[in-house]
Design brief:
Layout: H1 5-17, E1 27-28, H2 38-57, H3 67-76, H4 81-108, H5 117-139, H6 144-157, H7 162-173, H8 178-211, H9 217-222, E2 233-234, H10 236-261, H11 272-276, H12 284-293, H13 303-318, H14 320-323, H15 335-357, H16 365-392, H17 400-407, H18 409-412, H19 414-440, H20 445-471
Antiparallel strand pairs: 1-2
Helix pairs in contact: 2-4, 2-10, 3-4, 4-5, 4-10, 5-6, 5-8, 12-15, 15-16, 19-20
Protein backbone atom coordinates (compact mmCIF):
# COMPACT_ATOMS: atom_id res chain seq x y z
CA UNK A 1 0.00 0.00 0.00
CA UNK A 2 1.38 3.43 -0.98
CA UNK A 3 2.34 5.88 1.75
CA UNK A 4 0.02 8.79 2.46
CA UNK A 5 1.14 12.40 2.07
CA UNK A 6 1.80 12.89 5.78
CA UNK A 7 4.06 9.83 5.99
CA UNK A 8 6.01 10.86 2.87
CA UNK A 9 6.61 14.31 4.38
CA UNK A 10 7.80 12.78 7.68
CA UNK A 11 10.18 10.44 5.84
CA UNK A 12 11.55 13.40 3.86
CA UNK A 13 12.20 15.34 7.10
CA UNK A 14 13.96 12.31 8.63
CA UNK A 15 16.15 11.99 5.56
CA UNK A 16 17.25 15.62 5.30
CA UNK A 17 17.68 16.10 9.07
CA UNK A 18 19.31 12.73 9.63
CA UNK A 19 17.06 11.52 12.44
CA UNK A 20 17.72 7.93 13.50
CA UNK A 21 14.31 7.31 15.08
CA UNK A 22 10.68 7.46 14.04
CA UNK A 23 8.89 10.80 13.96
CA UNK A 24 5.16 10.66 14.59
CA UNK A 25 5.25 6.89 14.62
CA UNK A 26 1.98 4.98 14.13
CA UNK A 27 -0.19 4.86 17.25
CA UNK A 28 -1.54 1.55 18.63
CA UNK A 29 -5.29 1.19 18.95
CA UNK A 30 -5.24 0.77 22.73
CA UNK A 31 -3.81 4.28 23.14
CA UNK A 32 -6.82 5.87 21.42
CA UNK A 33 -8.11 6.57 24.88
CA UNK A 34 -8.40 10.03 26.54
CA UNK A 35 -6.42 8.80 29.57
CA UNK A 36 -3.42 8.21 27.28
CA UNK A 37 -3.62 11.84 26.12
CA UNK A 38 -3.51 13.68 29.43
CA UNK A 39 0.06 14.79 28.76
CA UNK A 40 -0.91 15.92 25.24
CA UNK A 41 -3.79 17.95 26.69
CA UNK A 42 -1.35 19.57 29.12
CA UNK A 43 0.82 20.46 26.11
CA UNK A 44 -2.23 22.01 24.41
CA UNK A 45 -2.87 24.04 27.56
CA UNK A 46 0.78 25.19 27.47
CA UNK A 47 0.38 26.29 23.86
CA UNK A 48 -2.80 28.15 24.77
CA UNK A 49 -0.93 29.83 27.63
CA UNK A 50 1.78 30.98 25.24
CA UNK A 51 -0.77 32.36 22.75
CA UNK A 52 -2.88 34.25 25.29
CA UNK A 53 0.23 35.38 27.20
CA UNK A 54 1.74 36.94 24.07
CA UNK A 55 -1.51 38.82 23.46
CA UNK A 56 -1.47 40.18 27.03
CA UNK A 57 2.19 41.20 26.71
CA UNK A 58 1.13 43.85 24.19
CA UNK A 59 -0.51 45.83 27.01
CA UNK A 60 0.91 44.47 30.28
CA UNK A 61 3.55 46.58 32.10
CA UNK A 62 5.59 44.67 34.73
CA UNK A 63 6.09 47.45 37.25
CA UNK A 64 4.57 47.78 40.71
CA UNK A 65 2.76 51.01 39.82
CA UNK A 66 1.36 49.80 36.47
CA UNK A 67 0.98 46.00 36.71
CA UNK A 68 -2.50 46.18 38.22
CA UNK A 69 -3.75 49.07 36.08
CA UNK A 70 -2.48 47.47 32.86
CA UNK A 71 -4.16 44.18 33.77
CA UNK A 72 -7.36 46.07 34.51
CA UNK A 73 -7.03 47.88 31.17
CA UNK A 74 -6.80 44.55 29.33
CA UNK A 75 -9.96 43.27 31.03
CA UNK A 76 -12.04 46.44 30.65
CA UNK A 77 -10.85 48.14 27.45
CA UNK A 78 -9.15 45.64 25.13
CA UNK A 79 -11.65 43.86 22.84
CA UNK A 80 -12.21 40.39 24.31
CA UNK A 81 -9.48 41.18 26.82
CA UNK A 82 -11.56 39.74 29.65
CA UNK A 83 -11.83 36.49 27.70
CA UNK A 84 -8.09 36.36 27.04
CA UNK A 85 -7.31 36.94 30.72
CA UNK A 86 -9.86 34.34 31.83
CA UNK A 87 -8.69 31.70 29.37
CA UNK A 88 -5.10 32.33 30.46
CA UNK A 89 -6.06 31.83 34.12
CA UNK A 90 -8.17 28.71 33.55
CA UNK A 91 -5.62 27.35 31.11
CA UNK A 92 -2.97 27.57 33.82
CA UNK A 93 -5.24 25.77 36.27
CA UNK A 94 -6.04 23.12 33.65
CA UNK A 95 -2.35 22.58 32.87
CA UNK A 96 -1.52 22.09 36.55
CA UNK A 97 -4.48 19.76 37.11
CA UNK A 98 -3.64 17.74 33.99
CA UNK A 99 -0.03 17.45 35.17
CA UNK A 100 -1.25 15.96 38.46
CA UNK A 101 -3.64 13.58 36.67
CA UNK A 102 -0.96 12.57 34.18
CA UNK A 103 1.47 11.82 37.00
CA UNK A 104 -0.96 9.72 39.03
CA UNK A 105 -2.22 7.85 35.98
CA UNK A 106 1.37 6.94 35.11
CA UNK A 107 2.08 6.06 38.75
CA UNK A 108 -0.75 3.54 39.00
CA UNK A 109 -0.01 1.79 35.68
CA UNK A 110 3.79 1.89 36.27
CA UNK A 111 4.83 3.67 33.09
CA UNK A 112 8.21 4.32 34.76
CA UNK A 113 9.31 0.72 34.25
CA UNK A 114 12.23 -0.11 31.94
CA UNK A 115 13.00 1.36 29.42
CA UNK A 116 11.06 4.53 30.36
CA UNK A 117 12.87 5.42 33.61
CA UNK A 118 14.37 8.65 32.25
CA UNK A 119 11.04 9.66 30.69
CA UNK A 120 9.49 9.52 34.17
CA UNK A 121 12.26 11.63 35.71
CA UNK A 122 11.95 14.24 32.96
CA UNK A 123 8.18 14.25 33.35
CA UNK A 124 8.49 14.93 37.08
CA UNK A 125 10.89 17.81 36.40
CA UNK A 126 8.39 19.18 33.88
CA UNK A 127 5.71 19.00 36.57
CA UNK A 128 7.86 21.09 38.91
CA UNK A 129 8.34 23.67 36.16
CA UNK A 130 4.57 23.77 35.58
CA UNK A 131 4.05 24.51 39.27
CA UNK A 132 6.73 27.19 39.03
CA UNK A 133 4.94 28.81 36.10
CA UNK A 134 1.72 28.82 38.11
CA UNK A 135 3.46 30.40 41.09
CA UNK A 136 5.25 33.12 39.11
CA UNK A 137 2.30 33.97 36.89
CA UNK A 138 -0.05 34.30 39.84
CA UNK A 139 1.86 37.36 41.11
CA UNK A 140 1.85 39.36 37.87
CA UNK A 141 -1.61 41.03 38.19
CA UNK A 142 -0.30 42.53 41.48
CA UNK A 143 -3.53 42.03 43.41
CA UNK A 144 -3.70 41.77 47.18
CA UNK A 145 -4.53 38.07 46.77
CA UNK A 146 -1.67 37.24 44.40
CA UNK A 147 0.97 39.30 46.22
CA UNK A 148 0.03 37.87 49.61
CA UNK A 149 0.02 34.32 48.23
CA UNK A 150 3.43 34.80 46.63
CA UNK A 151 4.86 36.22 49.86
CA UNK A 152 3.60 33.15 51.72
CA UNK A 153 5.30 30.85 49.19
CA UNK A 154 8.56 32.80 49.39
CA UNK A 155 8.34 32.86 53.17
CA UNK A 156 8.28 29.07 53.26
CA UNK A 157 11.71 29.05 51.60
CA UNK A 158 13.15 31.03 54.49
CA UNK A 159 12.75 27.98 56.73
CA UNK A 160 15.17 25.99 54.61
CA UNK A 161 18.84 25.88 55.65
CA UNK A 162 20.37 29.32 55.11
CA UNK A 163 22.83 28.10 52.47
CA UNK A 164 19.91 26.85 50.35
CA UNK A 165 17.01 29.10 51.33
CA UNK A 166 18.82 32.41 50.82
CA UNK A 167 20.06 31.39 47.39
CA UNK A 168 16.61 30.24 46.28
CA UNK A 169 14.96 33.40 47.58
CA UNK A 170 17.49 35.56 45.71
CA UNK A 171 16.99 33.58 42.50
CA UNK A 172 13.20 33.76 42.77
CA UNK A 173 12.53 37.15 44.37
CA UNK A 174 15.64 39.16 43.64
CA UNK A 175 17.21 41.63 46.08
CA UNK A 176 14.12 41.79 48.32
CA UNK A 177 12.17 44.84 47.12
CA UNK A 178 8.67 44.53 45.65
CA UNK A 179 9.89 45.89 42.30
CA UNK A 180 12.69 43.31 42.14
CA UNK A 181 10.28 40.53 43.08
CA UNK A 182 7.82 41.44 40.32
CA UNK A 183 10.58 41.79 37.73
CA UNK A 184 12.15 38.46 38.68
CA UNK A 185 8.78 36.66 38.63
CA UNK A 186 8.02 38.20 35.23
CA UNK A 187 11.33 37.06 33.74
CA UNK A 188 10.94 33.57 35.16
CA UNK A 189 7.35 33.29 33.93
CA UNK A 190 7.81 34.38 30.33
CA UNK A 191 11.41 33.30 29.57
CA UNK A 192 13.22 30.95 31.94
CA UNK A 193 10.50 28.48 32.90
CA UNK A 194 8.89 28.20 29.42
CA UNK A 195 12.32 27.65 27.86
CA UNK A 196 13.09 24.91 30.34
CA UNK A 197 9.69 23.32 29.85
CA UNK A 198 10.01 23.37 26.07
CA UNK A 199 13.49 21.83 26.23
CA UNK A 200 12.34 18.99 28.47
CA UNK A 201 9.21 18.48 26.36
CA UNK A 202 11.31 18.10 23.23
CA UNK A 203 13.60 15.58 24.95
CA UNK A 204 10.67 13.62 26.31
CA UNK A 205 8.91 13.53 22.93
CA UNK A 206 12.11 12.27 21.29
CA UNK A 207 12.28 9.40 23.77
CA UNK A 208 8.54 8.80 23.37
CA UNK A 209 9.01 8.35 19.63
CA UNK A 210 11.71 5.78 20.42
CA UNK A 211 9.80 3.79 23.04
CA UNK A 212 6.18 4.45 22.02
CA UNK A 213 3.25 4.45 24.43
CA UNK A 214 3.29 1.86 27.18
CA UNK A 215 0.97 -1.07 26.66
CA UNK A 216 -1.87 -1.68 29.12
CA UNK A 217 -0.40 -3.45 32.16
CA UNK A 218 -2.52 -6.58 31.77
CA UNK A 219 -1.30 -6.97 28.16
CA UNK A 220 2.35 -6.46 28.99
CA UNK A 221 2.22 -8.78 32.01
CA UNK A 222 0.51 -11.45 29.90
CA UNK A 223 2.96 -11.03 27.01
CA UNK A 224 0.56 -9.75 24.34
CA UNK A 225 2.74 -9.16 21.25
CA UNK A 226 2.92 -5.68 19.76
CA UNK A 227 1.78 -6.86 16.34
CA UNK A 228 -1.32 -8.69 17.50
CA UNK A 229 -4.84 -7.70 16.49
CA UNK A 230 -5.38 -6.19 19.96
CA UNK A 231 -2.57 -3.68 19.34
CA UNK A 232 -3.34 -2.68 15.74
CA UNK A 233 -1.56 0.53 14.76
CA UNK A 234 -2.91 3.56 12.92
CA UNK A 235 -0.91 6.25 11.06
CA UNK A 236 -0.80 9.76 12.43
CA UNK A 237 -2.37 11.18 9.28
CA UNK A 238 -5.30 11.24 9.10
CA UNK A 239 -6.49 8.79 11.81
CA UNK A 240 -4.60 9.91 14.91
CA UNK A 241 -4.61 13.55 13.86
CA UNK A 242 -8.42 13.57 13.68
CA UNK A 243 -8.70 11.88 17.06
CA UNK A 244 -6.22 14.30 18.62
CA UNK A 245 -8.01 17.25 17.01
CA UNK A 246 -11.35 16.12 18.43
CA UNK A 247 -9.99 15.54 21.94
CA UNK A 248 -8.13 18.84 21.89
CA UNK A 249 -11.14 20.64 20.44
CA UNK A 250 -13.38 19.40 23.24
CA UNK A 251 -10.79 20.51 25.81
CA UNK A 252 -10.47 24.01 24.33
CA UNK A 253 -14.25 24.30 24.00
CA UNK A 254 -14.63 23.40 27.67
CA UNK A 255 -12.14 26.12 28.65
CA UNK A 256 -13.94 28.70 26.49
CA UNK A 257 -17.36 27.82 27.88
CA UNK A 258 -16.07 27.95 31.47
CA UNK A 259 -14.40 31.30 30.73
CA UNK A 260 -17.60 32.78 29.33
CA UNK A 261 -19.76 31.49 32.18
CA UNK A 262 -17.31 32.45 34.95
CA UNK A 263 -15.23 35.41 33.73
CA UNK A 264 -12.28 36.63 35.74
CA UNK A 265 -12.92 39.03 38.59
CA UNK A 266 -9.87 41.05 39.59
CA UNK A 267 -9.37 41.43 43.37
CA UNK A 268 -8.26 44.80 44.81
CA UNK A 269 -4.80 46.12 44.05
CA UNK A 270 -2.03 45.25 46.49
CA UNK A 271 -1.09 47.77 49.12
CA UNK A 272 0.23 47.33 52.66
CA UNK A 273 -3.09 48.59 54.04
CA UNK A 274 -5.13 46.16 51.95
CA UNK A 275 -2.79 43.29 52.82
CA UNK A 276 -3.21 43.96 56.55
CA UNK A 277 -6.93 43.18 56.24
CA UNK A 278 -6.43 40.04 54.16
CA UNK A 279 -5.65 36.50 55.30
CA UNK A 280 -2.84 35.32 53.00
CA UNK A 281 -3.04 31.87 51.43
CA UNK A 282 -1.30 30.34 48.42
CA UNK A 283 -3.24 29.27 45.35
CA UNK A 284 -5.02 25.90 45.41
CA UNK A 285 -2.15 23.81 44.00
CA UNK A 286 0.03 24.76 47.01
CA UNK A 287 -2.76 24.99 49.54
CA UNK A 288 -2.33 21.39 50.72
CA UNK A 289 1.27 22.08 51.77
CA UNK A 290 0.37 25.35 53.46
CA UNK A 291 -2.36 23.56 55.42
CA UNK A 292 0.25 21.15 56.76
CA UNK A 293 2.35 24.07 57.96
CA UNK A 294 -0.66 25.32 59.96
CA UNK A 295 -0.66 22.16 62.11
CA UNK A 296 0.31 22.99 65.69
CA UNK A 297 3.22 20.46 65.81
CA UNK A 298 4.83 22.23 62.84
CA UNK A 299 4.75 25.69 64.39
CA UNK A 300 8.13 27.29 65.02
CA UNK A 301 11.06 24.94 64.54
CA UNK A 302 8.68 22.09 63.70
CA UNK A 303 8.25 23.55 60.23
CA UNK A 304 11.59 22.00 59.29
CA UNK A 305 10.09 18.54 59.72
CA UNK A 306 7.09 19.39 57.52
CA UNK A 307 9.21 20.85 54.73
CA UNK A 308 11.62 17.94 55.07
CA UNK A 309 8.79 15.44 54.67
CA UNK A 310 7.49 17.23 51.55
CA UNK A 311 11.00 17.33 50.09
CA UNK A 312 11.56 13.63 50.74
CA UNK A 313 8.19 12.82 49.12
CA UNK A 314 9.09 14.84 46.02
CA UNK A 315 12.50 13.17 45.74
CA UNK A 316 10.96 9.70 46.15
CA UNK A 317 8.51 10.43 43.33
CA UNK A 318 11.34 11.59 41.07
CA UNK A 319 13.49 8.49 41.70
CA UNK A 320 10.51 6.10 41.75
CA UNK A 321 11.77 4.08 38.72
CA UNK A 322 14.90 3.20 40.69
CA UNK A 323 12.94 2.28 43.83
CA UNK A 324 10.07 0.26 42.37
CA UNK A 325 12.14 -2.37 40.57
CA UNK A 326 9.48 -5.07 40.27
CA UNK A 327 8.75 -6.43 36.81
CA UNK A 328 4.96 -6.45 36.96
CA UNK A 329 2.97 -3.33 36.06
CA UNK A 330 -0.58 -4.34 36.98
CA UNK A 331 -1.99 -2.28 39.88
CA UNK A 332 -3.56 -5.45 41.32
CA UNK A 333 -0.06 -6.93 41.66
CA UNK A 334 1.35 -3.87 43.48
CA UNK A 335 -0.80 -3.41 46.62
CA UNK A 336 1.83 -1.40 48.52
CA UNK A 337 2.38 1.22 45.81
CA UNK A 338 -1.34 1.43 44.98
CA UNK A 339 -2.16 2.02 48.64
CA UNK A 340 0.51 4.72 48.91
CA UNK A 341 -0.83 6.42 45.78
CA UNK A 342 -4.42 6.39 47.01
CA UNK A 343 -3.34 7.76 50.39
CA UNK A 344 -1.48 10.59 48.65
CA UNK A 345 -4.51 11.50 46.54
CA UNK A 346 -6.89 11.40 49.51
CA UNK A 347 -4.60 13.49 51.70
CA UNK A 348 -3.96 16.05 48.94
CA UNK A 349 -7.67 16.56 48.34
CA UNK A 350 -8.55 16.64 52.04
CA UNK A 351 -5.77 19.09 52.95
CA UNK A 352 -6.65 21.37 50.02
CA UNK A 353 -10.35 21.52 50.91
CA UNK A 354 -9.54 21.84 54.60
CA UNK A 355 -7.15 24.70 53.93
CA UNK A 356 -9.76 26.50 51.84
CA UNK A 357 -12.31 26.22 54.66
CA UNK A 358 -9.92 27.32 57.46
CA UNK A 359 -7.89 30.28 56.15
CA UNK A 360 -5.24 31.37 58.64
CA UNK A 361 -6.49 29.08 61.42
CA UNK A 362 -4.01 27.14 63.54
CA UNK A 363 -4.96 23.44 63.54
CA UNK A 364 -4.70 21.75 66.98
CA UNK A 365 -2.58 18.63 67.23
CA UNK A 366 -5.48 16.32 68.08
CA UNK A 367 -7.57 17.59 65.17
CA UNK A 368 -4.67 17.35 62.72
CA UNK A 369 -3.84 13.81 63.80
CA UNK A 370 -7.50 12.79 63.79
CA UNK A 371 -8.25 14.01 60.26
CA UNK A 372 -5.04 12.97 58.52
CA UNK A 373 -4.59 9.76 60.53
CA UNK A 374 -8.25 8.80 60.26
CA UNK A 375 -8.23 9.36 56.51
CA UNK A 376 -5.05 7.30 56.21
CA UNK A 377 -6.63 4.38 58.11
CA UNK A 378 -9.84 4.53 56.07
CA UNK A 379 -8.00 4.50 52.74
CA UNK A 380 -5.72 1.66 53.84
CA UNK A 381 -8.67 -0.39 55.12
CA UNK A 382 -10.76 0.13 51.97
CA UNK A 383 -7.80 -0.67 49.71
CA UNK A 384 -6.95 -3.80 51.69
CA UNK A 385 -10.59 -4.91 51.49
CA UNK A 386 -10.63 -4.34 47.71
CA UNK A 387 -7.46 -6.41 47.23
CA UNK A 388 -8.91 -9.13 49.45
CA UNK A 389 -12.02 -9.29 47.28
CA UNK A 390 -9.82 -9.39 44.21
CA UNK A 391 -7.85 -12.36 45.54
CA UNK A 392 -11.09 -14.20 46.26
CA UNK A 393 -12.37 -13.59 42.74
CA UNK A 394 -15.17 -11.16 43.54
CA UNK A 395 -13.77 -8.13 41.75
CA UNK A 396 -14.40 -9.55 38.30
CA UNK A 397 -18.11 -9.74 38.97
CA UNK A 398 -18.54 -6.03 39.62
CA UNK A 399 -18.12 -4.32 36.26
CA UNK A 400 -19.68 -1.16 34.91
CA UNK A 401 -22.05 -3.26 32.83
CA UNK A 402 -23.33 -5.21 35.83
CA UNK A 403 -23.82 -2.01 37.81
CA UNK A 404 -25.84 -0.43 34.99
CA UNK A 405 -27.93 -3.57 34.60
CA UNK A 406 -28.56 -3.69 38.34
CA UNK A 407 -29.74 -0.07 38.35
CA UNK A 408 -32.18 -0.94 35.59
CA UNK A 409 -33.74 -3.88 37.44
CA UNK A 410 -36.61 -1.92 39.06
CA UNK A 411 -37.67 -0.60 35.66
CA UNK A 412 -37.54 -3.99 33.95
CA UNK A 413 -39.57 -5.61 36.74
CA UNK A 414 -42.21 -3.01 37.49
CA UNK A 415 -44.54 -5.50 39.21
CA UNK A 416 -41.93 -6.65 41.70
CA UNK A 417 -40.89 -3.03 42.30
CA UNK A 418 -44.50 -2.09 43.07
CA UNK A 419 -44.70 -4.90 45.61
CA UNK A 420 -41.55 -3.53 47.26
CA UNK A 421 -43.09 -0.08 47.67
CA UNK A 422 -46.04 -1.36 49.74
CA UNK A 423 -44.03 -2.59 52.77
CA UNK A 424 -41.69 0.37 52.35
CA UNK A 425 -44.52 2.88 52.80
CA UNK A 426 -46.21 0.95 55.62
CA UNK A 427 -42.91 0.46 57.43
CA UNK A 428 -42.06 4.15 57.06
CA UNK A 429 -45.35 5.15 58.72
CA UNK A 430 -44.72 2.70 61.58
CA UNK A 431 -41.18 4.07 62.02
CA UNK A 432 -42.50 7.64 62.07
CA UNK A 433 -44.99 6.73 64.81
CA UNK A 434 -42.29 5.18 66.97
CA UNK A 435 -39.88 8.11 66.51
CA UNK A 436 -42.65 10.60 67.30
CA UNK A 437 -43.61 8.74 70.47
CA UNK A 438 -39.99 8.48 71.67
CA UNK A 439 -39.27 12.15 70.99
CA UNK A 440 -42.39 13.27 72.90
CA UNK A 441 -41.64 11.02 75.88
CA UNK A 442 -45.14 9.44 75.78
CA UNK A 443 -44.58 5.79 74.87
CA UNK A 444 -47.60 3.45 74.69
CA UNK A 445 -46.39 -0.14 75.13
CA UNK A 446 -49.21 -1.58 73.03
CA UNK A 447 -48.65 0.90 70.22
CA UNK A 448 -44.90 0.33 70.39
CA UNK A 449 -45.37 -3.45 70.20
CA UNK A 450 -47.70 -3.14 67.19
CA UNK A 451 -45.33 -0.74 65.41
CA UNK A 452 -42.39 -3.07 66.06
CA UNK A 453 -44.32 -6.04 64.67
CA UNK A 454 -45.31 -4.05 61.58
CA UNK A 455 -41.70 -2.96 61.09
CA UNK A 456 -40.49 -6.55 61.32
CA UNK A 457 -43.08 -7.81 58.85
CA UNK A 458 -42.35 -4.97 56.42
CA UNK A 459 -38.60 -5.52 56.67
CA UNK A 460 -39.04 -9.23 56.03
CA UNK A 461 -41.33 -8.53 53.08
CA UNK A 462 -38.88 -6.07 51.52
CA UNK A 463 -36.05 -8.56 51.98
CA UNK A 464 -38.03 -11.25 50.17
CA UNK A 465 -38.93 -8.91 47.33
CA UNK A 466 -35.31 -7.80 46.98
CA UNK A 467 -34.18 -11.42 46.92
CA UNK A 468 -36.67 -12.22 44.17
CA UNK A 469 -35.62 -9.14 42.19
CA UNK A 470 -31.93 -9.99 42.53
CA UNK A 471 -32.46 -13.58 41.38
CA UNK A 472 -34.16 -12.20 38.27
CA UNK A 473 -31.32 -9.83 37.39
CA UNK A 474 -30.38 -11.79 34.28
CA UNK A 475 -33.92 -11.89 32.92
CA UNK A 476 -35.08 -9.14 30.62
Amino acid sequence: MSENLGRRFVNWVKKVVGLQTNVLRPVPEYSMNPFYWLGALAAIAFGLQAFTGLLMLIYYVPTTDQAYSSTQFIIQNVPLGWLIETVHLYGAYAMILLAFLHMFRGYFVSVQKHPRELMWVIGMLMGLLVLGMGLTGYLLPWTVVSKSASDVSIGMLSFLPAQIGNVLIFLIAGAGSSAAELTRFFDLHIIVLPAGLLSLLGLKMYMFESHGPSKPPKWEDSGTPQGSERSKEYPWWPNVYLYFAMVGGVFIAFLLVASVLFPISLPPEFSPAAASNFVPQPDWYFLWMYQMLKFAPFEGSGIYYALGAVTVLAIMLVILPFVDRGRTRSPWSRPLYVTIGLVMIAELIALTVWGYLTPGALIPTVQAAGVTGGLFLVVVAVTAFAFRLRRKGFAGRFTVNTVVRALGLPFRHAGITGMFLIPLIVGSVAMENMVGALSSGQVDLTSAAVSSAVLFVCFYGMARVMRHLTLNRDKT
